[in-house]
Each structure stands twice: as structure tokens, then as C-alpha cells.
Design goal:
four-stranded antiparallel sheet; alpha+beta
Length: about 200
Amino acid sequence: GMLVFGKAQEAVGLDPHLTPAISGRMLTALVYERLVYLNDKGEPTAQLAEKWTNPDATTYTFALRKGVKFHNGRELKAADVKYSFERMLDKATASPWATQLSPIQSIETPDEYTVTFKLKNPFGPFLSVLAFDWASIVPQEVVTQYGDLRQHMIGTGPFALDEYVLNTRTVLKAFPNYWGTPPLVDGITFRIIPDEAARLA
């Protein structure tokens, strides 16, 4: 069935690299995914990255899961990871999260399923930083097509954007080709209901 959720306010935007507000991040966290996430114990756990190695204090190499699909049907590749992080670091993007990634010196993609981060200096919380929802992986062609992701979401997560009516509702539907455990609901409808009494009713 469809889960209906009442929201007090509309999302400021749907771009995970630009949205600091919880109203937007509660949507992007369902649509986009990261290389790793933090499990219930707060430990970095594999998500889009199947595994990783840390051969020295300033090098992290991630092996991506094969067969992961974006909601537009294209397979996730290392180039998408490189693009996503370079987009966040680009001053032109004006991401509020760019400073969190400042320890990154370079990003290399030796093959289609491998990404290597070189850091300027040892940085202990690096994996935890990658686990935040703003460190989501996005497809470059969608950003190119629309100019930004403020009203469009194409990720690899369990839910895909089905309908977006500003200040009215956002409808997400379960993504049938999701690589992980399928959602237990067919979709989620977020209705914008500013009045608390109306929301409760």
C-alpha cells in the first residue's frame, strides 16, 4: 500500500548536494545512496561500495557493487562517484557541505567499478563523512539535462520520484530494480500540511 506522511513544510530543494534542511533531506535520503552508511552501532557499512581498503593513512579505495541501477535505468559506475564529489567540491556548485570534503586531494577511477580517494593529510572521520546523506551519488547526465537537481531526483535508492507538486505533495514509488532489500510499501506520499491540528487530524 501507500504510506501517507504529513509534512509541516515543503523541501527547500531536492538536490542532496545543496539541501541543508531536514525537510529536503528526509526525501533525498530515500531516493539517493552513498558509498557507505552508518549502521545502528554507528559503524561505516558498505552500501554502494561493496568493500574498501585503506592501504595507508591517506588512501581509500572503494570497490563498487556491480549491477546497481539508477532510476533512469543506467548502471552506476565509478565516473558517477568521481563526478558527484567533484561537483560538491566545485565552488560554482556552492555546496554548503564542501568544507566537509576539503581533506580530499584527488579522486581516481582506475576502472569502471573502482574509486580511489587521496587525502591531503590523515583524516580519521573520512568514512563517517562519506556516510552522510548529502554525500549522495548522482548521475551527471541528469544534472546536465536540468541544470541542477532542485526539482528532480534520480538516484539508486529504494524509492524513485513519481510526482512533485510544489507546496502540495511529493510522491515516491518503490523502485522495482532496487539492488537491495525491496521496500515494504508501494510508495510514500508526503503531503504539505502546515497547520499542526490539520496534520494530526
